Amino acid sequence: MTDQTSISFANLTAKSDGVVVVFAEEGPKLTESAKAFDKESKGLLTKAMQMTDFKGKAESSVDLLAPASLNCSRIVLAGLGKPDEITGEDWLNLGGKVRAAVTGKEAPEAHVFLDGVKAEISAEDIANFALGTILRSYSFKKYKSKKNASDDGKKTPEKTLKKIVIHCADPRAAQRAFAKEKAVGKGVNFARDLVNEPANVLTPQEFAKRARTLAKLGVEVEVLTEQRLKRLGMNALLAVGQGSTQPSHVVVMQWNGAGEKGGAPVAFVGKGVVFDAGGISLKPASGMEDMKGDMAGAACVVGLMHELAERKAKVNAVGVIGVVENMPDGNATRPGDVVKAMSGTTIEVLNTDAEGRMVLADCLWYTQDRFKPKAMINLATLTGAVMVALGKEHAGLFSNNDDLSNELIKAGEESGEKLWRLPLGPKYDKLIDSKVADIKNTGGRWGGSISAAQFLQRFVKPETPWAHLDIAGMGMGSPETDVNRSWGSGFGVRLLDRLVRDQYEK
């Protein structure tokens, strides 16, 4: 959950106290603000650089107690690296690093002086830096008992950072740019909250309830219950959830930020298996607790719709999530069963643990049939095989459209949420041919992430530009980075926001 640290902007000459953060480019070359603090402290920063061999390289820093002549209690001198090599992702990560350095234990305020040696830092880069501080601030401690009692039994309030002031050349421009990034931060952290929740709390019904809260931002939210899903013929999705006592849902979210002139929406579809025991094809006990995060794709879609509405994005977008629980009981789908999907395609269920593709099959068909989107992108923690191929550095990308694929890869590079395209093709498609039905829900051991994508493609009309993002390595059990210390990273929100801004927003 996001902390309550406020972020504001001020000019470079505004008063500062508490903890002060200044920078040096590689060389080292102190920025103008750093030079001013160095002069006021009678060469403290210069001496520190000489004693520590600080060269201003990226990811390096020097932490100093401030002398009595300064109003601040502490000075952090951080390296920027080479100015012509700093990317937007670097500014984001720098914000995370700085937020980690200013914990609030020394002072409740931190003043960050963002200026260069020669060139002025853009408002967009400053906003990216501020977003990095928001993302790094997140922690999920909802179920931690609060024990801040001192030896005498009296509770002592925890010292935390209350305020970050970013000093820059044009505070108003930075504030305007930050308004969008602040919305992105809220969307990412909303998604993180969903992924981190335990499955006994975040049931399908509770997931749908939380998605409904987007209505207060102007999102049109519709929840399809099991009775409605049966009438629609969403039997593939229902087959996954029929072993659970929790009813399945599909949630449809519409944001019409571009109005009628915006035309058809861009659609985002998410797998929302709130807990995946594997069904009758029961998973091993080891690591099964992580399957509370098997709804990270759906969480991303909800987080994305939240941030698009929060920042009043001028785009028409629709989000569709299938929310189910995959459990074994006497009513559960059996290996060998045949079900008919909404599209009319019959599916032989060989493995009930290959359930996410069943959920997405009906959601993809429903989305394109109802909304006829200009593009459709789905996200799912779909296969362990994609982690064998790509680890936790890239999400897998599969697509029937080169333009959409290239746009997503570009958005991934810009946002830092990177993708790697994997192949689709007729020979892979043969892996899911069934002898008793139209298709089977698993293609065997080899190329598991590819055969899963081929399965999904069977439910996408050829004329619909479509991409499937397999985020199994990124959405849960996420690697720790400069901007993420959460088990659930909220992966995909920033990526797809960048795609919308670059390609679809009017």
Automatic annotation (TrEMBL):
One of its GO terms (biological process) is proteolysis. Its cofactor is Mn(2+). Signal peptide: none annotated. PANTHER family: CYTOSOL AMINOPEPTIDASE, LEUCINE AMINOPEPTIDASE-RELATED. It catalyses: Release of an N-terminal amino acid, Xaa-|-Yaa-, in which Xaa is preferably Leu, but may be other amino acids including Pro although not Arg or Lys, and Yaa may be Pro. Amino acid amides and methyl esters are also readily hydrolyzed, but rates on arylamides are exceedingly low; Release of an N-terminal amino acid, preferentially leucine, but not glutamic or aspartic acids. Its main location: cytoplasm. GO terms for molecular function: manganese ion binding; metalloaminopeptidase activity. The active site is at residues 283, 357. One of its GO terms (cellular component) is cytoplasm. Its EC number is 3.4.11.1, 3.4.11.10. It is found in: Cytoplasm. Coiled coil: none annotated. Presumably involved in the processing and regular turnover of intracellular proteins. Catalyzes the removal of unsubstituted N-terminal amino acids from various peptides. This is Probable cytosol aminopeptidase. Residues 351-358 form the Cytosol aminopeptidase domain.
